[in-house]
Amino acid sequence: MQTKKINIFDTTLRDGEQVPGCKLNTKEKIQLALALEDLGVDIIEAGFPISSPGDFASVEEISKVIKNATVCGLSRAVEKDINAAGEALKYAKRPRIHTGIGTSDSHIKSKFNATREEILQRAVQAVKWAKNWVDDVEFYAEDAGRTENGFLAKVIEAVIAAGATVVNIPDTTGYCLPHQYGEKIAYLVNNVPNIDKATISCHCHNDLGLATANSIAGVINGAGQIECTINGLGERAGNTSLEEVVMVMKQHAYLGFYTNIKTEKLNPLSRLVSDTMRMPVQPNKAIVGANAFAHSSGIHQDGFLKDNSTYEIIRPEDVGADGSKIVLTARSGRSALAHRFQKIGYSFNRNDIDVLYQQFLDVADKKKEVKDEDLHELAKAYQPEAVS
Ligand code: KIV
Ligand code: ZN
């Protein structure tokens, strides 16, 4: 089986921080950058240095403290942006400038009032300019998801010839279906003659809930880097969720991809990002949501109690989650009730449980969740001498 390392490019501090209300100060950004390095990400996109003096300072300070990961700064395809990124990255051990321009006809016309040929020239000039600052230059073709493949291939060939080491193919608007995004990457692999001189990167937004699926389609078709964020934070409906793509590749190891992410650090870092950015994680979020390992219906609870793997494909400890939870609700069954009674110190036989189960349902129908206190009440009323 082939094994290919997929680089994890984390953009929580740049695309993630663009979320309204998620703004971070330099101290917070440094704390998260160190935690991301500890998690094992390969590249940390630390910010957009031209955007504000505060963001410039954050990129500069992060560059000083990060030892192993590449530190990346974003810029438009504009000399003054690139200069700011180059300056901010001057202390980085492994600096990368991420520069680019919109390549879809919609961006070319509405944003730039330009022609395809002019955009191609600006892309090449930006990469060449960035090469004056750093060796490692990543080019993004903004809105590549809606860019015609022939023109996209022309741009990518030209920027690689100009020195781009990574070529980012963003589905900026989250428009593509997985097979379309995968075909786009395959098209570049098959039609850009110098493509093996650069790493192809996926940067997928989640407007249709397809960011994770599209990124995985990208690596299956030849990409070597995924851009993503903790908790899937990012513009509008968000970016690709780091924890999801990493666990997809781990759970489907037969695909032949691996990352350097220490997956047992995923849940603690998810909480740190959520607290620092003041952005709650939805309870049903894959991998890091409060309910990711919670079982509530009787059928599921019964199967899970017989063998965890009947309803869990990931062990909670492998992603640093607190553990599996059996939540008692009106949908729960006798086996979950008996299990919980036992856990809190009561040993009831089958007949006892039959009787208690009816009383439990009366309580459960009035509440969202039956708690241990409720069970103690039931147990006391039923069998006051129960061992507790
Ligand atoms: O979504 C996007 O296209 C971006 C680029 C700046 C890489 O965030
Ligand atoms: Zn983006």
Automatic annotation (TrEMBL):
UniProt entry keywords in alphabetical sequence: Amino-acid biosynthesis, Branched-chain amino acid biosynthesis, Leucine biosynthesis, Manganese, Transferase
GO molecular function: 2-isopropylmalate synthase activity
Pfam families in alphabetical order: HCS_D2, HMGL-like
Biological-process GO terms, alphabetical: L-leucine biosynthetic process
Record domain Pyruvate carboxyltransferase: where: 6-267
Catalytic activity, EC: 2.3.3.13
Pathway per the UniProt entry: Amino-acid biosynthesis; L-leucine biosynthesis; L-leucine from 3-methyl-2-oxobutanoate: step 1/4
InterPro entries, A to Z: 2-IPM_HCS-like (IPR050073), AIPM/Hcit_synth_CS (IPR002034), Aldolase_TIM (IPR013785), LeuA/HCS_post-cat (IPR054691), PYR_CT (IPR000891)
PANTHER family: 2-ISOPROPYLMALATE SYNTHASE 1, CHLOROPLASTIC-RELATED (PTHR10277:SF9), HOMOCITRATE SYNTHASE-RELATED (PTHR10277)
Family named by the database record: Belongs to the alpha-IPM synthase/homocitrate synthase family. LeuA type 1 subfamily.
Official protein name in the record: 2-isopropylmalate synthase
Organism from which the protein derives: Parafilimonas terrae
